[in-house]
Design goal:
499 residues; mainly alpha; Neurolysin, domain 3; three-stranded mixed sheet; two-stranded antiparallel sheet; 5 strands; globular
């Protein structure tokens, strides 16, 4: 880490104090959101919507404090982002990230922030009801409100010439539609060609596993992998997610499917990767943009690294097999080869989170195409299910006749997270490259994984990825790792596993 952290902190002490006050409102709002998705009684939604709206307004108001603007402007021109004076690279990065966040928040009105927060709180509840009913029409008015509010956000951010790129930039600073198309087009062609020539083989059928056994296993798994359970916890939700309240309070959730224990394992590994990243960020810079995770693609690279490249490796399966047998006696007939066959099955299906590593990318292409249609081409919300179904057939050859298995399967749009989905694929591509790089740097990595020793991998990631926070841009970070954002390593992985 930079040697002058303490000096930087002293120099920007007033700014940092205010950033901490700002983030307190975010933390409270996050607690309310986490509770809504885990333990809140259903009839509390109206009150909770008001709570979240109020906290969002206070958080936004703190960003727009005139004294903070003056203090920040003493170091950097807030209108252009150009530093005033000479600063070290670390100080420049601190100012860059703080100014970027300030400019974003000050472009948005408090009325919009409160309206959007209230709309998402209600929409997530209505999405859950609509999904249970498999009825898109029940959710459509709330989604329409979010789309309308998002168009207004784009206008306030000044991105009307490139509306969808404006949304992508919130999750992947600097990323554009042409760049995404450059990365995604060859990957999509590779995947569809692979499916034309690949002969699927049946994976073993799974016995039902009850909730209590799956939850106990998930809790033991994250602890064994290195998640500090004194500074975090694991709970259940309809759609798995991770929320960071503080470096000492990371909330993971997983989903349990009694008919498919491996879905729970996959979800748990995925959220563990997110949680490990958050626990690895430098605590001295917590509650500031400089100390936050770099981007959603980097975040997803950590979750997909553990979920797919570690969790589905032969070495991991060898380590876990006896542990799985202890937790789930009904799986004692499953050999390492049986488990590997399950993970290596390639068969298009409707569910993104249960999809194999090969077809998963095509699920993201469906969502990417739908979002571009919504914000670039003016697709009416009412037409979204039909367009979704058409893309599912085009990319995956799947016929969708059920809204719950189609356009309602993801929670993201009900949370207003338009532009997020590309990060899943970008993260998977970066994870594949990390798997190659770490494998070369740690020659005995497989042997360590077989013994359940993950410390050397965690230390590698913490030193080279986690500890940087947002000190480096995404381009600088991937360059420092000796990689880029491309699909080459991922395609090599697919060819090697399914040769």
């Amino acid at each position: 880490m930079p040697s002058n952290l303490a000096a930087t902190m002293d120099r920007f002490n007033t700014l940092i104090d205010h950033l901490h006050r700002i983030d307190t409102f975010r933390q409270i709002q996050s607690v309310l959101s986490w509770d809504q998705e885990t333990y809140m009684p259903p009839n509390a939604i109206a009150a909770r919507t008001q709570h979240i709206k109020t906290m969002a307004g206070l958080w936004h108001e703190a960003w727009q404090d005139s004294n903070f603007a003056s203090q920040l402007n003493a170091f950097i021109d807030v209108s252009t982002g150009i530093p005033k004076g000479t600063f070290s690279p670390d100080e420049t990065a601190f100012l860059r990230e703080t100014c970027r966040a300030w400019r974003h928040q000050n472009a948005l009105s408090r009325d919009w922030v409160e309206a959007f927060s209230a709309a998402t709180a209600t929409a997530q509840h209505m999405w859950s009801e609509a999904r249970n009913r498999s009825d898109f029409s029940h959710f459509a008015p709330y989604l329409q409100e979010l789309v309308t509010l998002t168009h207004e956000k784009i206008r306030q951010l000044g991105g009307t010439d490139q509306p969808y790129t404006t949304l992508i930039d919130e999750f992947e600073p600097g990323m554009t539609i042409p760049e995404l198309d450059r990365i995604f087009t060859p990957l999509c062609a590779f995947t569809t060609d692979f499916l034309k020539t690949h002969r699927p083989y049946p994976s073993p059928s799974l016995p039902p596993i009850d909730y209590a056994a799956q939850r106990a296993y998930s809790e033991s798994l994250v602890a064994a992998l290195g998640f500090n359970t004194r500074c975090g916890r694991l709970d259940l939700s309809a759609h798995p997610f991770t929320i960071t309240l503080a470096p000492t309070d990371i909330r993971l959730t997983t989903r349990i499917n009694p008919a498919n224990v491996f879905e729970s394992i996959s979800s748990t590994l995925h959220e563990f990767g997110h949680g490990l990243y958050e626990q690895g960020l430098n605590p001295r810079w917590a509650q500031t943009p400089y100390g936050a995770a770099r981007s959603m693609a980097i975040h997803e690279s950590q979750s997909r690294f553990w979920e797919v490249f570690v969790g589905q490796s032969e070495a991991f399966i060898a380590w876990q097999r006896p542990i799985l047998h202890d937790h789930f006696p009904d799986l004692r007939g499953f050999s390492e080869a049986d488990i590997a066959r399950y993970w290596q099955r390639v068969a298009p299906q409707w569910c993104r989170v249960e999809s194999d590593i090969v077809t998963y990318t095509l699920h993201i292409m469906v969502r990417y195409a739908c979002e571009k249609a919504l914000f670039e081409s003016g697709l009416p919300v009412a037409d979204l299910p039909a367009v979704w179904n058409d893309y599912m057939h085009q990319y995956l050859g799947i016929t969708i006749t059920d809204d719950a298995q189609g356009v309602l399967q993801d929670v993201h749009w009900s949370a207003g997270l338009f532009g997020y989905f590309p990060s899943y694929t970008l993260g998977t591509l970066i994870a594949a490259q990390l798997w190659e790089v770490i494998g070369k740097g740690i020659p005995d990595m497989d042997a360590r994984i077989r013994e359940g020793d993950f410390l050397v991998i965690t230390e590698w990631l913490r030193e080279r990825v986690h500890d940087h926070g947002s000190r480096l841009t995404t381009a600088e970070l991937v360059d420092s790792l000796g990689i880029g954002v491309s699909s080459d390593a991922f395609m090599r992985y697919i060819e090697r596993v399914w040769q």
